[in-house]
Write a structure and sequence with these properties.
Elements lengths: L2 H17 L5 H21 L4 H19 L5 H18 L1 H24 L3 H6 L1 H12 L12 H21 L6 H22 L4 H34 L6 H18 L1 H14 L6 H32 L1
Length: 315
């Protein structure tokens, strides 16, 4: 699109935003997201244009308005889950794709490495875990390890640990994304080698029906946390018209919001692992939980953000 067409198509909207301030937090958030989308487009196609500098200034004003009032009432919290987080996910959709590809590639590498090296799984998972699992297999209950701890204690430990991992994956994005990629790689290799361990013993389906009851939410959340880290790392690598520090601040805030949005997902995953995974469920029930978890993740973090974005853009 030529710059003149871009300006003509959006001038009226920009003037309305400046002349008619929005006091409602939801509407203010919507306008800010639209302005940042326009700014991103202008940075890409007209990086040295006056319209890019203009949008940069207007977006900065809206950013100050948006964060000047920290009071979190019920409407603001609802707006976060209904609009703000989904819009951030749409804006970060390519980072989410890259995070998934890094993780999936590491899974394949872990699987292939375990297939070609008998000692690889012990190197990755540790002798204690492997020996315990082999003993459980011998006793006819290969996944008995999930029932070996008190439910309440297990729930707290798992949930806190998973939230910690997500924040670490995000925080390491401050090393120009390389730290986040390393965390994704580490967890992906562990998962790939872990699943091959059961495949080698003809227990792959049994492990999937057991482990992925909670693993669908848990692994998906780690990948999404990786996307949050890439958002922050990208802000350092490609600051655009902002100073590198200002770009980093904006990227860090966006990434932090994504990670905070994952906390309920980790709580749900911790609950499933502590109270449900340990149970002996019919394969249909296990499959239903896994499919429902996967559909929720895809809908809320991929499909719904696109729907909200298009509603706001073309309505």
């Amino acid at each position: 699109m030529k710059e003149a067409v871009f300006v003509k198509r959006n001038t009226e909207k920009w003037q309305e935003y400046e002349s008619t301030p929005a006091h409602d937090p939801d509407r203010l958030t919507e306008r800010f997201i639209e302005l940042t989308d326009d700014l991103s487009y202008a940075r890409t196609f007209y990086p040295k244009s006056t319209v890019t500098r203009y949008l940069n200034g207007v977006a900065a004003q809206f950013h100050q308005k948006l964060y000047s009032n920290r009071q979190e009432d019920r409407n603001r919290i609802a707006a976060f889950w209904k609009h703000e987080l989904p819009l951030l996910m749409f804006e970060s959709r390519f980072k989410l794709l890259y995070s998934f590809l890094f993780f999936f590639g590491a899974c394949i590498l872990g699987w292939l490495s375990a297939a070609h090296d008998d000692t690889y799984v012990r190197l990755i998972m540790g002798d204690a875990y492997v020996n315990q699992t082999l003993e459980n297999i011998k006793n006819g209950d290969p996944l008995a390890i999930y029932g070996g701890t008190g439910q309440a204690d297990m729930f707290m430990q798992i949930t806190v640990n998973n939230i910690k991992v997500s924040f670490v994956a995000f925080a390491l994005g401050s090393f120009f994304s390389f730290g986040t990629i390393a965390i994704l790689f580490q967890n992906g290799v562990m998962l790939g080698s872990f699943q091959y361990f059961f495949f080698e013993r003809d227990l792959l389906l049994a492990s999937i029906l057991k482990i992925w009851i909670h693993g669908t939410l848990e692994i998906s959340a780690i990948v999404i946390a990786g996307a949050a880290g890439l958002v922050m790392g990208h802000s350092l690598l490609f600051p655009g018209t902002y100073s590198r520090l200002e770009s980093f601040k904006l990227g860090a805030k966006k990434g932090m919001k994504i990670v905070i949005g994952l906390v309920p997902v980790f709580i749900a995953a911790g609950f499933l692992e502590s109270f449900i995974t340990r149970l002996t469920l019919h394969p249909v029930v296990s499959s239903s939980i896994i499919i429902a978890s996967a559909l929720f993740i895809v809908w809320y973090f991929v499909v719904y953000p696109r729907k909200i974005y298009h509603q706001m853009t073309f309505s």
